[in-house]
Structure formats: C-alpha cells, structure tokens
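Need tokens for this chain, all 243 residues.
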Amino acid sequence: MLTLSLMSSMTYAQQFKVLLFTKTDGFHHESIHEGVTAIKQLANRHSFSVDWQENATVFSDKGLEKYQAVIFLNTTGNILNEEQQAAFEKFIKSGKGYVGIHSASDTEYDWAWYGKLVGMYFKIHPSQQTAYLKVEDSNFPGMERFPKKFLWTDEWYEFKTPANANDLKVLVSVDEKTYNPATKWGDNEGKGMGNHPISWYHNYDGGRAFYTALGHIPLTYSDQTFLDHIYGGIYWAATGKGL
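Here are the structure tokens for all 243 residues:
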C-alpha cells in the first residue's frame, strides 16, 4: 500500500503552482472567461497547478508564498492597494515570475514598479484588424510553432513611449504597414509606433516578467499557436528554464 501511495504521489506531482488573477477596475474583457478555461486546460496538459482569483487579498506574503508565478490575465485599472503591492514586489524580488496578458499593460498606471515589470503601458488601439506578425526572437519557450511571418487578427495595442524598461527582449512585433493604426479618442491619438512590439520578456528586480498583447478576441484562446505562446511564458516565468 505504501508503494502504491508513493507511486500515486509521483504520478500526480505538479511541476509548479501559479496564481491566475483577473481583477478589473475598468473595462472587463469578454475573453477573460475563455482565458481562464484555456489556462486551466494548459495546467492539465502540462502538469502544473493553477488557482484562479479575482480577490486581491491573496496578495500578501502568506497568500503568495506557495506560487512560483502570477498571471495577470486582462486585468485593468488599479487593482492592488499599497500593502498588496508591497507583497507582490517582495514576491518578484524573491526570484519568482510574472506573466501579463493583453490588458495587463492597461493596469496600475500610478505604480512605477509595476510599469517597469510589465515593460510598457497601453496608450490606445484602433478597431480590430488583421495584420502580419513578425517573430523577432524564436529562442524562447513556446515560440517553436510560430512561423517567421504570419497573419493574425486581434486588437493592436499601441504603447506609450518611451518604454518603462530599457532591457525588453522583443519576441514578436506587428507590421503597421499591414493594418491601419490611426485612431483618436478625444485628445488621445494613435498614429502607430513604427517599430511596434507585441510580446517581450526580461529579468526584473530579482525575478522574471513575460508579456504578450495578444488575447483580446475570445477565440484566440482556442488557437494552439497562441496557447503555446502563453505556456512558454508561464513555464519560463515560473521556472527560469528554457533559455
């Protein structure tokens, strides 16, 4: 019986544990539901554990200690108070990881530390369009399925410049010549960025951060290429492996 118990524990051992956080204080993306479902399926497929929360009280030293990475999935606005921010900073400084998906860059504009963690802040976007994506760096987990150039339809975030961090390693960019980036929301005007990053990663303050702007459209979360992209970011952020 002891042997069987040990074998069972080994069979169901999880690689790592992540927190999936989807709190919003602003726009609430329809695709959050599909994203949560997809990440739970990734956890089953790749043998890691995920807890889904929208309650920010989990951001404490004790609440975060069991996780190796935190995923901000389509979060918006100011979602953590000062004590919760301090706990998250301590978490990253301890060597843990962060994954930001889509509107994670539309989050916590007044928290400079987070701005550097996510890398760039959202500025504006035009209507959803099809455009060509270009792989800038294939030497990262989950990039194996990406062709060098491919069509993709999404909501193309234009980011504020300059970037919040100067060490971002760009994985994917979007070709602005293949869609119309022009848009205007009152005084906020988008004209495109020229060199337009869409996904990146970097080491930050003792930990690791991965971000992708893809993921606005719900059906994105059933696309295997995108799922590989997300899991690669989760895997690297949680373990530091793959490079």
